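Standup notes, structure subgroup. Blocker cleared on the pyridoxal-5'-phosphate input:
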Amino acid sequence: MERIYLDYAATTPCDPEVLKAMEPYFFEKFGNASSIYSFGQEARKAIEDAREFTASFLGARPEEIVFTSGGTESNNFCLEGVSSALEKKGNHIISTAIEHHSISEPLVSLEKKGIKITLVGVDKYGLIDPEDIKKSLTDKTILISVMHANNEIGTIQPIAEIGKIAREKGVYFHTDAVQATGHIPINVNELNVDFLSLSAHKFYGPKGVGALYIRKGSRLARFLHGGDQERGLRASTYNTPGIVGLGKALELCRDKMGEQASFEIGLRDKLIKELPNKITEVYLNGHPVKRLPNNVNFSIKYIEGESILLNLDLLGIACSTGSACTSSSLEPSHVLLATGLSHEIAHGSLRITLGRWTKERDIDYFLEHLPKIVQKLRSMSPLYE
Ligand SMILES: *Cc1c(COP(=O)(O)O)cnc(C)c1O
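Run returned:
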């Protein structure tokens, strides 16, 4: 059976060209990039090339990029690093109700250490109102953290506008751009951000490597203690193959992003248009146009997302309900609840995310089979008349 992968927001396959670029750094050029002999220096050169490319991709400078183990570390690093560096300045952080767990969990932990947290809500499309951020500012606010694009419903936030508010007040602004990077254009200056997180495995690079952009002059305490890699900000032996892979993956995104996005938008909008014609009582989650090119999220009334996933899996189709991290718990997604959905409707949600190897016939196959699955499940549901 042919398998169809429609869960690119959970992770993407590593592009074979990325793999090819990484390969020499496992055996032939395996040196420790902190060593001064040539084995080390050839690895170091590759890392610095990747850093330069990453910086230019974001409109940043090379010295503003720190490589990390992924989006989770970049997010933890920023929240912890700013809280501790600005301890004397204040103790208040503003974030949102729809962040990824790698933001919301560190915030819970900071709250236990005495940091005050304000979480701003969203409208029914999952959009933040920048005015709500403005109203939440106090003279103790040290950081605002708002995700660029949501991993579940794909809604893209008005980051530049929020950044302007932050800048006027002299407050640091971080964005978790893990879902956005490589999928929509990103420029740290146009977005008015001081910190930005990204992760390679969400844009066709390897897992376990990411970066944190740190605007020059921003104060941030080091996160991992140990050696003096990354100018003393982040210890641990350089992950040369991973960093090379991240750079190569961004290079491919630069070349392919425009065309890829228009292809995805075509298929995305076909799903958004066709599903309500084929299934009754389905509702689109997220914003109709301010959304990632590759994201579709629907609530299908009277059935459980989990049951749809299992039935789709029997046909070889992989997609997601809520997000991969929340789908193992019974609580419905905090993102869908924040948009005002009831528990019942939130439970019947389905996320379909497209990518570089998605084909139109995959979408047609999905559109052919999903209505049959829904009909079958509804016929067994006590809620459905
Ligand atoms: C995947 C994801 C993360 C975590 O990134 P990892 O590299 O998997 O740790 C953080 N934020 C968002 C929005 C994500 O989608």
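Discussed briefly. The mean pLDDT is 96.
Next: hand off to the docking folks.
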